[in-house]
Amino acid sequence: MRYLPEHVESALLALDLARKEAAHLHYTQRTLFAQPIDTAWVEQLSTRDDLAEKIDAFVSRFGRLQDHLGEKLIPRFAALLGEAPKSILDVLGYAEKMQWIESAEAFIGSRKLRNLLVHEYMSDTQLFLQALLSARDAAEMLFCTVAAIEAEASALGLHTD
User: Fold this and answer.
1) CA 56/CA 47 separation, integer angstroms
2) Tens-place pLDDT, residues 84-123
3) Averaged over 119-138, what is the pLDDT?
4) What is the pLDDT of residue 37?
5) 29-38, 115-124, 129-138: which has the minimum mean pLDDT?
6) Which string of DSSP letters, residue by residue, matches the chain?
7) Any idea where the domains of the chain sit in the sequence?
């Protein structure tokens, strides 16, 4: 047997939730970045509630998916395969070894982006703009992680409907 059957249900539940969260983030990302985002756009955030709300949705969904991957999905798939990572660094190291993520360092860096997005848009326009554009790319990394773990589930013959 290539996996521990007692972990199948929790791993698949985590994968299902990750898919849903990724779909919500993808929608928000697509609509947010459909418009050109530059310094002038960021400066409007303090007076345009619609733009600020879009940012809040993106940041919230970005953080929620990132947390879910690092705290639930990756550890549950590691357990499914007989691993028991102890810390977030162990979890990310295992995910990198399994090629579910390209880089543990990049994954950790995306957590710093989330903190910048939460705290900087009211005080530092340029820093916020750079963080926002970097988060767009980091979201792609999160989507790739979900896809890689979906592929793992499929390779194991797990039903992921």
Assistant:
1) 14
2) 888 999 999 999 999 999 999 999 999 888 888 887 666 7
3) 86
4) 94
5) 115-124
6) --S-GGGHHHHHHHHHHHHHHHHHHHHHHHHHTTS---HHHHHGGGT-HHHHHHHHHHHHHHHHHHHHIIIIIHHHHHHHTT----SHHHHHHHHHHTTSSS-HHHHHHHHHHHHHHHHSTTT-HHHHHHHHHHHHHHHHHHHHHHHHHHHHHHHTT----
7) 5-155
One-letter identity of residue 19: R
- As a whole number of angstroms, the distance between CA 37 and CA 29 comes to 12
What torsion do the CA atoms of 69, 90, 102, 34 make, to the nearest 10 degrees? 30
CA atoms within 13 A on the CB side of 2: 8
For 36-74, write each residue's pLDDT tens digit.
Answer: 999 999 999 889 999 989 999 999 999 999 999 999 999
